[in-house]
Specification:
alpha+beta, five-stranded antiparallel sheet, globular, Penicillin V Acylase, Chain A, about 20% helix, 6 helices
Length: about 375
């Protein structure tokens, strides 16, 4: 049973960590996409960026596992998992922040600074409240479709409490969330002014601030982008041809800000040539997400003479048909996979594997003929 609460010990640790983070600011930049393959399978994936190192693990959470949400007033919503799931956790906080369940429903948390505003926890709503990290575990363990998630939220079955959660910096984590299901439907959930606001997501793309509706409006600035090359034009009797491939995408924003990443994620998803099947679709997802890979140093800030650089710690992908969860890290680009269908989904405990590994360099000198 997972039970999280805010006690005196965690308060002391939070103060200590807060003093540490004054000198170690963190930034968070994540990008998500969804693709459909020729056989009708939907595959999705995302990058996960931080400005400081976090221990991450991939876990399998079985059916029947008990959770208790954390709130500012103590224990919050209690639930027992209906569906088994596989995904990523941070530190030892056994709640999935990004993952997929046995029904093919996927969920992901994305940083939402400057806009996330959670509800105030009161004795009246405490029994339905949980932390901003608990809610993704609740979604992936309780629902099979986007419509089920929508109904539950519209029916006020959950509220997010502005509580500190284990494994994170000592500040209320400002998240918004994306949900995909096996049919390809996608839903964005944003905590705005104390309410959970829902948006249908026709693009399947996801990034950070500002709000999702703003990102959709901003796409109108880029409707001229085209995957086809621009044909030669004649000016004053002289023919001008493109200098190389990609002229139709001239003007595509290439920086790492959330608005630019959202545009690229949408354009790359919309123009991708469908893969034959899920396995090839996963590889295509990962290739597209390579375009959002942030190397150490390119996105940084200097605080008190120390450089802090945002970088892509983890990239994940999800196969909604075969229930496989893929991941690779900054230190190890080897694609690793966990097959949820091969586990005892009624097991009594959570099993996990650390994502922390180093990629070997293979010497093929002796293979040359």
């Amino acid at each position: 049973m997972k039970k999280s609460c805010f006690n005196a010990k965690s308060l002391v640790m939070a103060v200590v960590c807060a003093m540490f983070l004054v000198a170690q600011p963190a930034a968070y930049a994540c990008t998500g996409i969804q693709l459909q393959t020729k056989d009708g399978t939907y595959v999705s994936g995302r990058t996960l960026e931080f400005g400081i190192f976090f221990e991450t693990s991939v876990v399998v959470v079985p059916r029947g596992y008990e959770f208790t949400g954390a709130t500012t007033l103590g224990d919050g919503k209690k639930w027992k998992t209906k569906y088994a799931s596989v995904g990523t956790i941070i530190a030892d906080n056994e709640v999935i922040l990004d993952g997929i369940n046995e029904k093919g429903l996927s969920v992901g948390s994305f940083y939402f600074p400057g806009f996330a505003k959670y509800s105030v926890t009161t004795p009246q709503n405490q029994s339905i409240s949980m932390s901003s990290s608990d809610i993704t575990q609740w979604i992936v363990s309780q629902f099979a479709t986007v419509e089920e998630v929508r109904h539950a939220i519209e029916n006020n079955e959950v509220a997010i409490s502005p509580v500190l959660t284990p494994g994170f910096p000592p500040e209320v984590q400002p998240f918004h969330f994306i949900v995909y299901d096996r049919s390809g439907k996608s839903l964005v959930i944003e905590p705005l002014d104390g309410k959970l606001v829902l948006y249908d997501n026709p693009t399947g793309a996801m990034a950070n601030s500002p709000t999702f509706d703003w990102h959709l409006t901003n796409l109108r600035n880029y409707i001229a982008l085209n995957p086809n090359n621009i044909p030669p034009v004649s000016i004053f009797g002289k023919s001008f041809k493109q200098l190389g491939q990609g002229s139709g995408m001239l003007g595509l924003p290439g920086d790492f800000t959330p608005p630019s990443r959202f545009v690229r994620a949408t354009v790359f998803s919309a123009t991708a040539i469908p893969s034959e099947n899920a396995e090839k679709g996963i590889l295509q997802v990962l290739h597209i997400l390579n375009n959002f890979d942030i190397p150490v140093g390119v996105a940084r800030e200097v605080h008190e003479g120390v450089i802090h650089s945002d970088y892509t710690m983890l990239t994940t992908a999800r196969d909604s048909k075969n229930l496989r969860y893929y991941f690779k890290t900054y230190e190890d680009q080897t694609i690793k996979m966990v097959d949820l269908s091969k586990f005892d989904l009624d097991a009594k405990k959570i099993v996990k594997i650390s994502t922390n590994s180093k990629q070997p360099i293979i010497d093929v000198t002796g293979d040359l003929k």
